[in-house]
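As the work plan foresaw, our protein records have gained a structure token line. A representative record is set out beneath this paragraph:
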Amino acid sequence: MLSATTPLLAIAPLLAIALALGTANPPASAQSNRRPQSNRDSQSNRETKLTRETGIHIRLFTDRSAEEAKQWVETFDHAIVQCADAWDIPRQDIQGWSVDAAVLSRRDQFESLPFWDASVPDFRTGYALGNRLFVYSQPGDYYTGHLLLHEAVHALMFEFFDTAGPTWFQEGTAEWLGTHRGIGKKVKVGVVPDSRKDFAYWGRFKKIAEARAEHRVPSLVHVMKYPANVIGDVRAYSFSWAAIRLFADDPDHRQRLLKAIRSPAGSADAFNRRWVRDLGPAWPELSARWMLWVDELDYGFDPSRHHCKLSRQTPRWNGDTVTFEVDAGKGWQAAPVRVDAGMVVHVDASGQCTIDHEPGPWRSEPDGVSLRYVNDFPVGRLLAALVPTRPNSDPTLPPLRIEPIGRDGQFKVHQSSWLVFKINDQTGELADNTGSYRVQLSK
């Protein structure tokens, strides 16, 4: 939040970004709150062919098996309580709250339901209209349940907050809490997928990886400007989820999510301007962290290992020798100095770490182990990257410039930047790594 002592020149760029943030009205998938409850006693002839399962917070109609229906309902009832907890909604407040939901294969089946509304547009996967949820049956064991929880989060937010925010916030939070592991009493919401197998057809990491390969990763500003009509746009959902996780997994900003949804709704534009204004001087740091965050998102991503602390309070490097450690069990890590345009930085590294996975474990020095490559570099190799300190307001991010330093190397700085390092390994395989390299910066 901006303080009364913040210099005007520091505020001006933030206000310019805030004024540039514009989105359309909230997505149609959650247009209105407190829609009329369905007549639970009505039942058409065609409806009798469907399985119906009733839980505490859901009445579900489906053309899938009775066993699947029972599992979805039990999982839903436990998951929705966790979703309410995430938003600090008192548990007693959700007693008696429920939705009518359908998991079906064809549009005409939806239209036969007693709680169908003719205003529901064509949709590809799922749609929420007040407390009515419509989900197309998906292949695999996971994704149908994901969509059911995703739409339920929309319904929950409109019920208790009368809004769900602009597109990036609405879809991002639904993805955040809809992504779950386990079934029934063992369900846990808000997880990061750790394998393709257990999260079949989810596909968010695939879309993010495709964008990286195409050099089309959106800037954080661009994500916040997503329009209302992104229904079924998996790439937009993917980066909205990534943006919400950036804030939700940061202990300094998690509370901002709770504050934002409880603030006066207003327009999507007003929401975004208020969001950037409240971040104040932290905005450039988060905009820069976004560049590192989306660079490493993949299966097994552990947010606690990728919390790269960037600060404008980090001193500028004066050219004196600086020494620090780079941990093999973490992602990108910031050097204790920032660097200015025109500087030439020489890096020396020493030490050993253990990269502990099949067919290892391997002992690695800064040049890495050439028996295995990850992202085009030997596993265990010391990597460096420059992250500009000036926020990026372009639609897409420039590719992250990675320097394969190894035991020693040097590079020239082209714009004022934070300097970050990591020991190369797969995103999801950091937990069993041990050791560190000692890194020294000099002219």
User: Anything to note?
Assistant: Residues 1-47 have pLDDT under 50 and may be disordered. Residues 66-86 form the longest helix (21 residues). The longest strand covers residues 344-355. Residues 161 and 262 are 6 Å apart (CA to CA).
